[in-house]
Structure formats: structure tokens, C-alpha cells
Amino acid sequence: MVNITLYIAIDELCANAGINQEVILEVVEYGIATPQSGETLSEWIFDLESAHWIKKAIQLNQQLLLDWVAISLVIDLMKEKEKLKQENNQLKSRLSRFSRLL
Amino acid sequence: MKFKDYYKILQVGDTADLKQIKKAYRKLALKYHPDTSPEPDGDENFKEVAEAYEVLKDTKKRAEYDELRRYGGCSTDGFDAPPGWQSTTSNNQYQGNEHGDFSEFFNSFFADRGQNYEGSQRHSPDLFKGQDLEMELPVFLEETLSGTTKALDYHVPVITNNQRQQIKKSLKVKIPAGVTDGERIRLKGQGALGRQGKLNGDLYLVIRLVPHPLFDLQGSNLILSLPLTPWEAALGIKLEIPTLDGKVKLNIPANSRSGQKLRIKGKGLKSKTGQGDLLALIKIDIPPLTNTETKRLWSELAEADKYNPRADWS
């Protein structure tokens, strides 16, 4: 049986993504992700949702050569798109059930 | 191995300066990036474009590439390095995963240890650490109530001798109660294998809740469509209704209307903020007129009750 974790510490996140803590600070300052807990930068812990968006932001920075303002906007839109997609799927499922009853 | 024409991939001439190369890369990267591209082959095209840019943006690598291109760029029967050819930018012992998605051609000639992404502020990345992997995990709604154990079979990429291979891994994982759709779970060290004693990557599981034949989701609440006959809705009735963990008795009050929701507390999904509810959504189901007796009874009702549902139209 494999143990699961639902959080990741900043040093581990940095090692995984090959970045330094200042990049994470920048990502947080632009509102792309928020630490779950931790008083100081080196104590920050993120939930995996935030860790996912931090990695995505770094990918966009590296691969599309975007600056952090643009990345912040793109990530906001991507989050909104995911939320709407999920809502759309749920509503479609309800609609098809409703249509069957008509 | 197949020769890669990086200039052709980036759609620039071989005399293009760095500014032109960067401009061409940005244009194509935006076109093919998996997060922005609707094109079916976007991912593969993006890797090719990124690989070409990785070489052409670097003066030393580009010079070496130009040399290789002059030597055998026109060859269609496979490509080998010129005799005695020695890269100054590549570690020829490369077997790693940093460019696991790049071609055999790239890994043979240009894979090095010191990738320098523009603006990324990378710091000595641990290039021998295994890649993180991500996969979706279907979970039934019932399984979210008390947690479940799932067996996973998946493939881990390994690159040896510049060849990309897959090895199969199997493991069991305990999924905690209260997971939600889209939530991520991390299995530390279960991703791609690290090399030279370095850490393995992690495996991320993205929870996908399987659509249920009876219940729809609304946050942590469940919605159950509850069909009623007109007389059940009018007169009220006690019914047994299904929940995720067995049946419960529900009192349908008289004068219930279509679209009305009856709340059964605590019978929804578990969530981080508590326990959701089950909402029974009433739908009035009109029975088909199959015999004259039924028709007569409906006509009698129509005579006896002068209710007009369209009264506010006039």
C-alpha cells in the first residue's frame, strides 16, 4: 500500500520544478497560488491544487516566454474554464436526465 | 536515426537571427501549446518546436547543428554523426529524462545539463531526478463516503541509450473519504525513475468522479430526480428513496409541485467543509391514457376542479 500526500512543502516543490523560492514568491504575489500554511517563505506549504497551478505557471513562463502578468491572466482564465467545464458537464448530465423524464 | 531540420520546423531561413528565431518560436509555441491549442496533434508539434528552439537559440548548439546539417541534413536513409564528431555542448553519456520528450536526434547531440530557460530563474535543477507523472483516477460516488483502496497499473517512461521505453508499474493506493472531482493526490516517489541514486518523480492522481445512474452533483449535494404521479404530488405520499448508502423514508407533502426540492440532510457527499445533503427534485410524471376508465376519471377531475395554471396570462 502506497502512502498518499495532499500537501507539498516549498523546498520539495522547488526541487521538483527546478526553480528557486523567489519564483514561488512571485507566483504567490501575482495571486496565481496561495500557500495553505506557513509563516515565512521557507515554511510555506501548498495544497496540490496550488502546486499544480504553480507548475503550470512556470511551464507557461518557460515554454511560451510569457511574463508573470500575462501568466496570471492566463491562469485565471484556465481556472475559470475548468470550473465552467465541470459545471457544464454536471448541467448536461442533469438535462439529459430531465429530458428523459419529459 | 532521423535527421531533424530545425530551421524548417521553426519556419525560418538558416540565416535567421536570434530575434527572428524567437519570434517564430513564440508564434508556433502559442499555436501548438497543449494549454492553448485546439489542434489534435498540438502536443507533438509543440515538442518539435520546443526542441528546435532549444538548439537554435543557443549560439554554440546552433553552430554545431549547422555543422551536422551541412554534413548529412539531406540524408533520408537515417542519420549518423560525422566520423570523429564530438559535441562541445552535450554530455555524450546522456541517458536522462530532462529531455525525455525530445527526439533521439536531440538526445544524441544536444542534451546537456545546463538548460537555461529565459526568465525562469532556474537554480541548479536536479536533472537526475525522475519526472512527475499525472493520471486520472475514476472513483465512484459511493467510494467517496468512506474511502476506498484502488489498484493502479500504469507505465513509467525510461530512457536508456537514447531510446524511450515504458516499464509497467502496479501498486495499491488508499483513496481517502471526501475526495472531490478534479482533486489531486500525490504519491511520492511513484513517478519516473531517478538516476544515479537520485529521487524518483512523483505520481499525481487526478480524481474523476464517475457519473452515477441516479444522482447528479451540485457541489457536495446530490440531486435525485423524483418522479411522482399527479395524485401522489397532490395528495402526498410516504416513499422509500435511494441514497448512496441505502434507502431512507421520505414524506412527500400534499400539494407538492414540479421543480420543488426536498432536502434529506447529511445524505450527500463528504467534503472538507462538512457533509452535503441529498436533494430530491420533484418531477410530475403524467401517465399515458391507456383505457377509457382513466380518461373518464381525468375528465371528471377536470369538471370538478376549475384550477387554471395560466390565470396570470390574462
From TrEMBL, chain A:
<protein>
    <submittedName>
        <fullName>Chaperone modulatory protein CbpM</fullName>
    </submittedName>
</protein>
<keyword id="KW-0175">Coiled coil</keyword>
<dbReference type="Pfam" id="PF13591">
    <property type="entry name" value="MerR_2"/>
</dbReference>
<feature type="coiled-coil region">
    <location>
        <begin position="74"/>
        <end position="101"/>
    </location>
</feature>
From TrEMBL, chain B:
<protein>
    <submittedName>
        <fullName>Curved DNA-binding protein</fullName>
    </submittedName>
</protein>
<dbReference type="Pfam" id="PF01556">
    <property type="entry name" value="DnaJ_C"/>
</dbReference>
<keyword id="KW-0143">Chaperone</keyword>
<feature type="domain" description="J">
    <location>
        <begin position="5"/>
        <end position="69"/>
    </location>
</feature>
<dbReference type="GO" id="GO:0005737">
    <property type="term" value="C:cytoplasm"/>
</dbReference>
<dbReference type="InterPro" id="IPR008971">
    <property type="entry name" value="HSP40/DnaJ_pept-bd"/>
</dbReference>
<dbReference type="InterPro" id="IPR018253">
    <property type="entry name" value="DnaJ_domain_CS"/>
</dbReference>
<dbReference type="GO" id="GO:0003677">
    <property type="term" value="F:DNA binding"/>
</dbReference>
<dbReference type="Pfam" id="PF00226">
    <property type="entry name" value="DnaJ"/>
</dbReference>
<dbReference type="InterPro" id="IPR036869">
    <property type="entry name" value="J_dom_sf"/>
</dbReference>
<dbReference type="InterPro" id="IPR001623">
    <property type="entry name" value="DnaJ_domain"/>
</dbReference>
<dbReference type="GO" id="GO:0051082">
    <property type="term" value="F:unfolded protein binding"/>
</dbReference>
<dbReference type="InterPro" id="IPR002939">
    <property type="entry name" value="DnaJ_C"/>
</dbReference>
<dbReference type="GO" id="GO:0042026">
    <property type="term" value="P:protein refolding"/>
</dbReference>
<keyword id="KW-0963">Cytoplasm</keyword>
<keyword id="KW-0238">DNA-binding</keyword>
